[in-house]
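Exercise 7. Predict the joint structure of the components listed below.
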Amino acid sequence: MKNKKIDKQLIKNIAIIVVVYAVVAGLLYGGFLTRQFRSLLVPVCINVILAVSLNLTTGFLGELTLGHAGFMSVGAYTGALITMNLNLPLVVEFPIALIAGGLMASLFGVIIGVPVLRLHGDYLAIVTLAFGEIIKSLINAMSVTNGAMGLSGIELHANYKHFTFVFILTILTIFAIKNMVNSRQGRAVCSIRDNYIAAEAVGIPVSKFKVMAFVVAAFFAGIAGVIYGHNVGTLKPTTFDYNKSIEILVIVVLGGMGSIKGSIIAAVILTILPEVLRGADEFRMLLYAIVLIAMMIFNSSQLKERILANDIVAKFTKVKKEA
Amino acid sequence: MALLEVKNLGISFGGLRAVDDFNISIEKGCLYGLIGPNGAGKTTVFNMLTGEYLPTDGSILLNGKNLVGKNPAQICQSGIARTFQNIRLFSKMTVLDNVKVALHNEFNYSLASGILHLNKYKKTEKAMDERALEILEVFDMKEQANTLSSNLPYGQQRKLEIARALATNPQLLLLDEPAAGMNPNETAELMDTIRLIRDKFDITILLIEHDMKLVTGICEQLTVLNFGMVLTTGTPDVVLNDPEVITAYLGE
Ligand SMILES: Nc1ncnc2c1ncn2[C@@H]1O[C@H](COP(=O)(O)OP(=O)(O)O)[C@@H](O)[C@H]1O
Ligand SMILES: [Mg+2]
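Solution:
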């Protein structure tokens, strides 16, 4: 009985994915997108990956962290250095870069995971913030990353021309995080958020799962970084400062802590919005702020609960089926 | 050999000697009560037994194995489970998931098979669901499986905590004031449930309780704690007629 319901949900999700892809790809490859919107496709995907993965630590583990951009930069530089130094065909070198970037970022996830075991709340937020800045300084100081000059001439393996591939990566990330959250490991992570004393008392090795959440989140932030580098073609240490971390956190908070759907929707809106508002010139930041506030209000309203619970969608489909 | 053998257990918080020279011996299958006035140190004993607090002195032996120094998760895996005086549910999770968290160590699959939804994941999750529902059934809570645990009425939240503790498959179950806040009907029902789980799950139960009807109704052995020290130990009718115990409860 329950399985059937899950399968139905899966089918619905796949249908949504196919429709979204068909519409966007149709617009893109049909040449209907302006340059401005075309250039937003990959950043939207990147922010979705970043937000969904940050939700793992912030929403599901319940730890406020401000170092996500740090993991992203580790991935970005690792990936870029790999494709710049390997002269292999795209289909070989880019997947290598993605995996290596993800793994390198998760290695840093282990390192940051250790203070996480001792700190909570504001303290942890500050430590992770500092951590991101340390990574930035390291990249700034190292010669292999070309210091403050950064890297340029990175092959554009992930720009809008490769939208399909980036889209697939994004979907894979979403499913990976979603499946993890619904696994026994994900339940362990959520139980720590809800009550870590009770979690320990029912036999959950709390430390292990805290680190695991950080490592997995870092892995996908690393992947997002690799995509970023291969979309823009250049990397500078300053790209990944705490502003970027806060930007991702804002997306997660607006989308709703612990809501993957919310993270996705908020990432799409908040990536496109600043570009759309470009025309409004001096009012741009004001409008942006107003939208943020409006989303926050919507967030705590009943309407959102009902939409997320698919009441409205369900009503339509029901009517159709029973008719 | 007794299932639980606690010797000379003591703990100090700064200058406060919260529990001193605490001894208890609990036979397998026993329904044992730990009573005493508020602030006597009963919850502190539970916290030491479960590794929440590190005792300053003494030893805790479960089946002859020392538990002092192990962390709460390890102690849970050694076979002691507990409920809390102040309910500690996983409030943003469903009733079913609350129980499934506690099945974590008994049902295993890797993160990879979870993420990739491999066969092992599906099979194990199905088995977990079945087991969790089976346990909820004992508490008459199967219908609430998909309810958010924080939306349960108080009495059921207490029951869910017991169900969750049982899901860890303990040998010894510690209940900290399970009837607190319950009305007489709920308490009577709870008494039946406690007896039932002792028999059905073949476990030993140590409970803290103020409700004397529950204590005299189901406990076979009692230990009375007062100011962190054991006042007396014995069967309920003997202990509760002890003048010292009566004074401890009613004051001089
Ligand atoms: N973590 C702690 N730090 C300081 N004092 C504590 C701590 N835990 C318990 N105590 C003290 O130990 C004494 C016994 O408390 P407790 O075990 O909760 O009593 P009860 O028998 O009512 O369960 C109280 O005086 C309490 O203040
Ligand atoms: Mg107490």
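Discussion. Residues 2-29 of chain A form the longest helix (28 residues).
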